[in-house]
Amino acid sequence: MQPIIGITMGDPAGIGPEIIVKALANSELYCRCKPLVFADVQVIRSAMKMTGHVLGIRSVSTVGEACFEYGTIDVFDLKNVDMTSLEYGKVSANAGNAAFEAIRKVIDCAMKGEINATVTAPINKESINRAGHHFSGHTEIYAHFTHTKKYAMLLVDDALRIIHATTHVPLREACDLITQERVLDVISLLHNACVGFGITQPKIGVAGLNPHAGDGGLFGTEDRDVIAPAVQQAQILGYCAEGPIPPDTLFSKAVQGKYDGCVAMYHDQGHIPFKLLGFKWNNQTQTMDSVKGVNITLGLPVIRTSVDHGTAFEIAGKGIASADAMKIAINYAVQMAKNKQ
After folding, report:
1. Of 72, 118, 274, 338, whose CB is crowded by the most CB atoms within 10 A?
2. CB 333, CB 294: distance < 8 Å
3. Residue 180 and residue 171: Cα distance in Å, rounded?
4. Helix segments in 219-262, DSSP class H
């Protein structure tokens, strides 16, 4: 069966709507799933104009009203954006609230079983918070409204899979949040995710926190006293885990196939190697030629995948944003939904 995939518009002042339109202009996608966009219809109509795609729009108020036919985008119309005041590339509470409402609605439909998976376009955290919704990102919104305690961010691009022990917190706080229990939890989440991707015995590399993974306590004791015991406990439980491994070598080994997945200790430790691999900057045009990579939230009762890039306010409204990551995010959502069935 083709799974129903709920896709949120993201911040309407960003590139989310246009990359959704570009992705849904692909007829092959409709052979694999039934996409339903959660947005204001006027936002999607505007995105069509800026991208030059000539497609129909069907406004629906329930999932059951959608027809899922290529050539017409089904939109769960939230009617929550005033296009006369919307400014592309600008932070605003109104845009943040509209983006938040789309997320809440798609989560609600997923929790009710009306859709099989969710895909999110990028939001602007400042806009969300200006609107009074005090969350640091999609991951935390999903965790809150699905009542999930143990969850983690997983980045996927081809052979590179990186899970994070901590994400959107100050670096000073991240060090305190890295506990033996937390490291073991993310190893377990990563192992189960890899199995879900069809890897029967995944090899997991666990990054150290300090330079050279602490070098025996010379550059910090967290690797020796916290991370190493967590890895040992994971091995006892039957996971094929190694670490702590110096982070300056772990990811290059993973890209070459030594590890099926990696555990990063904090946000930038995992994001920098990931984006170095998947983001292709064109210095002549001063734009990204390609932006690949998928963000998957593990541990939730619902499936959530996302592009791993931001709202790109600097090019929003120009119709030039790459839809590569959105296409991949939808494909992963489809794969995970079918595996779950």
Report:
1. 118
2. no
3. 18
4. 222, 228-236, 247-255
Structure tokens at 301: 């009762």
Asked if 122 contacts 11 with a C-beta cutoff of 8 angstroms, the reply is: yes
CA 135 to chain centre: 15
Q: How far apart are CA 217 and CA 85, in angstroms?
A: 56
Backbone torsions φ then ψ of 9, nearest 5 degrees? -75, -15
How many angstroms from the chain centroid is the CA of residue 278?
Answer: 14
Quick check: bond before 244 cis, omega within 30? yes
Q: What are φ and ψ of residue 177, in 5° steps? A: -85, -10
Given a cut of 70, is residue 341 above it in pLDDT?
A: no
Alpha-carbon distance of 280 to 322, in angstroms, equals 11
From CA 166, how far away is CA 266, in angstroms rounded? 5
> How far apart (Å, rounded) are the C-alpha atoms in residues 296 and 316?
24
Q: By C-alpha distance, which of 95, 77, 73, 60 is closest to 27? A: 73
Would you state the structure tokens that stand for residue 84, as one six-digit string?
Answer: 């006369």
Give which of 55, 62, 49, 51 is closest to 22, Cα–Cα. 51
Contact 209, 182 (CB under 8 A): no
Structure tokens at 202: 């995944």
**pTM higher than 0.85:** yes
Coil, helix or strand for 39?
strand
SS3 51: helix
What confidence tens digit (pLDDT) does each residue in 292-317 have?
788 999 999 999 999 988 999 999 99
Query: Are 3 and 117 spatial neighbours (Cβ–Cβ below 8 Å)?
Result: yes
**Rg of the Cα trace of the chain?**
20
Task: Please write the tens of the pLDDT for every residue from 63-116.
Answer: 999 999 999 999 999 999 999 999 999 999 999 999 999 999 999 999 999 999
